[in-house]
Amino acid sequence: MHTISLWIESFPQLLAATVKVTIPLSLICFAIALVLGIATAQLRLSRFAVGRTIARFYVWIFRGTPVLVQLFIAFFGLPKIGISLTAWAAAIITFSLNSGAYIAEGVRGAQLSLPKGQWEAASTLRLSHWQTLRYVIGPQIWRIALPPLGNEFVNLVKSTSLASVITLSDVLQIGQQITARTYEPLILYTEVALIYLLICTALSWGQAYLEKRTSRYVITND
């Protein structure tokens, strides 16, 4: 009974933190990361050596270092050189850059899986590079990259729990505060875990639905 009563008592606070911080933070970061990832993928596939080098370096750094270390650098390290960020700003910048690097590789892989003949066919129709991306290549990339994009969104939601270490009042931070008052870490952290599980399960269902709706034949290099 004690466990149930504590769950009921703490749920409104945890739900509020989820709605006000965890979900908005995840959506904002994923939107930024998606734009950044698509742009980075195009740079990596471009004919410009400087752009390819910059994009490759960015992906190398953010995929090769722990996101928690990146978060510490943004929040605790940058003030040492005169750049002070709020917890929200540090979290958004860090998670967006980190997720963007992974999305870039997913989009690049999807684009490389399409035969070059489609670019050549679009060129004969006098479509520009961006028109080809928008009308010919883009829709197919979306269908191919949807599974890794969905997986990255789920990973991003779980990664946002790290924002609690820089005092951002997300659902995990609130869970820690309640635990400090009640001395019931097992009960509270289990409840927090279930909230994340529900969010990620809903996202997985949404991903499966989109995959089913967009499951059309796509010509690849296989």
How is this structure best described in words?
With 222 residues, the protein is an all-alpha fold. It has one domain (1-215): MetI-like fold. The chain is 79% helix and 0% strand. The protein is built from eight helices and no strands. It has helices at 2-44, 49-64, 67-77, 87-112, 117-124, 129-159, 171-182, 185-213. Helix 1 runs antiparallel to helix 2 (49-64).
Please give a handful of descriptors for the protein shown:
single chain; 222 residues; mainly alpha; MetI-like fold; 8 helices; 0% strand; flat; transmembrane helix
CA(first)-CA(last) distance: 58 Å
- What's the architecture, going by CATH? Orthogonal Bundle
Give the overall average pLDDT. 89
Number of domains as seen in the coordinates: 1
CATH fold field value = MetI-like fold
* The CATH class: Mainly Alpha
Beta-strand content bin: under 5%
Total helical segments: 8
CATH homology superfamily name? MetI-like
Which spans have pLDDT < 50 for at least 5 consecutive residues?
none
Overall shape = flat
Helix content estimate: over 70%
**What is the SS-derived class?**
mainly alpha
Taking all Cα atoms into account, the compactness measure Rg is: 21 Å
Helix-strand sequence: HHHHHHHH
GO biological process, one term: amino acid transport
Transmembrane segments: 23-45, 57-79, 85-104, 186-206
Keywords: Amino-acid transport, Cell membrane, Membrane, Transmembrane, Transmembrane helix, Transport
Protein name: Amino acid ABC transporter permease
